[in-house]
Amino acid sequence: MSFLLNGKVAIITGANQGLGLAISHKYVNAGASLVMCARNNDLLTRAKRELSAELAPGQVIEVIPADVSDIKSVEQLLKATMQRFGRIDILVNNAGVYGAMGPIEEVDWAQWIRAIEINLFGSILMCRAVLPTMKEQKKGKIIQLSGGGATNPMPNISAYAASKAAIVRFSETLAEEVRDFSIDVNAIAPGALNSRMLDEVLAAGPDKVGQAFFDKAVQQKESGGTGFDRGAELAVFLASDASNGITGKLISAVWDKWENWPEHKDELYKSDIYTLRRIAGRDRGVSWGDK
């Protein structure tokens, strides 16, 4: 890709499989050194072996098992990163789960809470951990993984939907907090991926996730869904200097022409396009609902 990450250090959570691994490949090919973290150390080790053949001179990959929802684990991850590299340029908050599936009054409450802890609290803990370094550097990129759960109701998968909507609003809020430090914060909707999470939906069955959502998942599995590459390429773009000043946005990897956005930074800065906002009646031509 033309948006090179030479000399940059990136932390990628949930990096041992799926989209996280695809982003890791793209980052290595763009010149970055990586800290790959996930809970499964065996998969992390396998991922490192897979990526090592792609390293150029000077590039380094570190793999560190970590639970992003555990503050001590996050602190240890950041300490190890700083000891090894002395800087953090990019954070990709990719780790996530669907969590409990079924009607809200019937789901296992501990599983529901666990999804919030990983998807939302884990992302926030990672941001809290890297921000002091990024602020001192007066530069940084934070990339959050959101998705359809943020923009559409997801009956029977409510923990995932609620956490992903919260991620987007947190990203918008954090983007304003850190704007004066030249830290850009954005969220990615990568598309309908055929990942382990899709397999979880299929395994849960229509009784848990609803017949309509299950049928859609079956169709996606058969069609192949959206490939990982487009979302990974967007993650490279948002980590690169080409995207400097683009911040506080929810960006569709598939549907948005994000490659052209550097030409329209002033318009993006002044507008609430590509954000989560309330739709009023007047926005839909309804005259009776609001002033």
Keywords:
291 residues; alpha/beta; Rossmann fold; 2 domains; seven-stranded parallel sheet; 11 helices; 7 strands
What does this entry look like structurally?
The chain is globular. The chain has a 7-stranded parallel β-sheet with strand order 3-2-1-4-5-6-7, with helices on both faces. By secondary structure, the chain is an alpha/beta fold. The chain has 2 domains: 9-191 and 227-279, NAD(P)-binding Rossmann-like Domain (Rossmann fold, 3-Layer(aba) Sandwich), CATH 3.40.50.720; 195-225, no CATH class. It has helices at 18-29, 41-52, 71-85, 109-137, 148-151, 158-177, 196-204, 206-209, 211-223, 228-239, 265-270; strands spanning 9-13, 33-38, 61-65, 90-93, 140-145, 183-189, 250-252. Strand 2 (33-38), helix 2 (41-52) and strand 3 form a beta-alpha-beta unit.
Kindly summarize this structure in a few lines.
The chain has 291 residues and is an alpha/beta fold. It contains 11 helices and 7 strands. The chain has helices at residues 18-29, 41-52, 71-85, 109-137, 148-151, 158-177, 196-204, 206-209, 211-223, 228-239, 265-270; strands at residues 9-13, 33-38, 61-65, 90-93, 140-145, 183-189, 250-252.
How big a fraction of the residues is strand?
5-15%
**What is the SS-derived class?**
alpha/beta
- Assembly type: single chain
CATH architecture type of the largest domain: 3-Layer(aba) Sandwich
- How many separate domains make up the residues? 2
What is the CATH third-level topology name of the largest domain? Rossmann fold
Q: If strands are numbered along the chain, what order do they take across the biggest sheet? A: 3-2-1-4-5-6-7
Number of helices: 11
Backbone CA Rg:
19 Å
> Class of the largest domain in CATH?
Alpha Beta
Helix percent band: 40-55%
Considering the protein shown, what is the CATH homologous superfamily of the largest domain? NAD(P)-binding Rossmann-like Domain
Low-confidence stretches: none
- Average pLDDT, rounded to a whole number, is 91
Shape assignment: globular
What is the H/E order? EHEHEHEHEHHEHHHHEH
